[in-house]
Design brief:
Ubiquitin-like (UB roll), five-stranded mixed beta sheet, DNA polymerase, domain 1, 2 domains, about 160 residues, alpha+beta, about 35% helix, 5 helices
C-alpha cells in the first residue's frame, strides 16, 4: 500500500492505495470524480485526460504514486464560480459532441493544448487533437470549438 497525497480540483486529499493503482482509478474510485472516463486502458483514446501540475496527461498511464504531491485538475474542476471554462463553453456552443464519452478528455486535452499554443493553425489543431479519439463527430465541430475557444481565450 502507498499513501498518496495530492490536490484535486483545489482540494487536498490523502488516500491509501495499492502500489499498482492508476491515477484514473484513484480519481474515479477513491475521489468519486467520474467525469474522467476509462476508455481503452492503453493510452490510445484520451478519454482519461486530466491536468497534472498544469500539463495534460492520460491518467491511465500514470500510477497514483507518481502523482503524490501533484496538483490534479479534472473536468469537474474546469468551471469556476458556475461559469464554464472557455473550452467547455465552445464545445457546447459549437455542438462539438454527440455521445459525450470522449468530451471530458477532449476538453482537458484541448485546454492544455491552447495553453501552450494560444493561436493555433488548422494543422496545429489537427496535430493537437492526436491521441484523443472521438467515434461520433467526425471532428469538424471539435475543430470549430478549438478555434472558438482560442479566440475567446486570447481576448
Amino acid at each position: 500500500m502507498a499513501k498518496v497525497e495530492l490536490k484535486i480540483n483545489g482540494v487536498q486529499h490523502s488516500y491509501d492505495v495499492e502500489d499498482r493503482t492508476l491515477l484514473v482509478n484513484l480519481i474515479r474510485d477513491h475521489a468519486q470524480l467520474t467525469g474522467t472516463h476509462v476508455g481503452c486502458d492503453t493510452s490510445q483514446c484520451g478519454a482519461c485526460t486530466v491536468h497534472m501540475n498544469g500539463v495534460a496527461v492520460k491518467s491511465c498511464t500514470v500510477l497514483a504514486g507518481q502523482a503524490d504531491g501533484a496538483e490534479i485538475t479534472t473536468i469537474e474542476g474546469m468551471a469556476k464560480n458556475g461559469k464554464l471554462h472557455p473550452v467547455q463553453q465552445a464545445f457546447t456552443e459549437c455542438h462539438a459532441l454527440q455521445c459525450g464519452f470522449c468530451t471530458p478528455g477532449m476538453i482537458m486535452a484541448v485546454s492544455g493544448f491552447l495553453k501552450d499554443n494560444p493561436k493555433p493553425t488548422d494543422e496545429e489543431i489537427y496535430h493537437g487533437l492526436e491521441g484523443n479519439i472521438c467515434r461520433c463527430t467526425g471532428y469538424i465541430n471539435i475543430v470549430k470549438a478549438v478555434k472558438q475557444a482560442a479566440k475567446t481565450m486570447s481576448k
